[in-house]
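[Automated response] Your request has been received and processed.

Submitted sequence:
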Amino acid sequence: MLNNFPLWPEQASTTAPHVDALYIFLLIVTGMMTLLIFICLLYFAARFRYRPGVRAEQIEGSTPLEITWSTIPFVVFMVIFAWGAVVYFKERTPPDDSTEVYVVAKQWMWKLEHAEGQREINELHVPVGRDVKLIMTSQDVIHSFYIPAFRIKQDVLPGRYTVEWFRATKPGTYHLFCAEYCGTQHSGMVGDIVVMEPAQYEAWMNGGSTGPLSATGEKIFAELGCSTCHRTDTQGRGPNLQGVFGKPVQLEDGRTVTADENYVRECILDPGAKRVKGFQPIMPTFQGLVSEEQVNALVAYIKSISAAKPGDAAKTSASAAPSGIQKNAEPNGSQVQ
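Generated structure:
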């Protein structure tokens, strides 16, 4: 009977045991404090009850008692803080070699695309024992990507990326929920996380991919005319994007920022927000001209040429001749887009 009513979901990720251990510790501490308070209440109610003819006496404070009941809770709270901080920062710091999946939330579905090109809706296939990094944004309102069995939950916001990661430890199918009220059909915004053995996952991955997401981004990059300014073989009217991702970028206003996913995204949709030093603000915005999926592809492409060798990048630049809308084919400079 008890097996049908578990106290919490199955542990199916490396994060789950750490979250559960902290939660159990909090339950034990709060339970003990609640019990101690009730015992004290009952004792004092009996010990100092009203008795006819007995006058109340003033009780002076006790310095050792004051120090004790201030120090012990402080130590307990610091243990909770330190433990929670360790769990939090580990949960929010994806390993560098994580497999990347781009997630776009919209009312009322989850659209997911693997770096290898596989696309899914309301379902995510992942291999057991491999780190998976989710790069997420919303197409409309705030959503929240929640997998109870993995003990992870992250708000998904419009206009920016948020990130979470996990490593599944057990093959199986696990529930995916939206944990943020997002409209009338919020309760139907659900899905499945399918954890597979590595061999099964590779077979599934090879069963219908349309090509890497970065290749799609390269095509969009050429169609939009980005390669006319952002060249990798010579200095163009915009900065060379080769090797820029993950590195510090100096801006015209004197600030230095890291070229992460959110920076690249912002430069595509709002070019004037963070202009690179030494380049003119001539790049037009692509807000409303590219979809969230296309922005993801462009980000993936820029990441791929940052990881590529200089020689490979030069070949890519030569082959990526513009064949579509040349929005930024204007004189002078631009910024990292």
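Summary generated for your ticket: The longest strand covers residues 99-106. Residues 213-324 form a domain with the Cytochrome Bc1 Complex; Chain D, domain 2 fold (CATH 1.10.760.10).
If you did not submit this request, please reply to this message.
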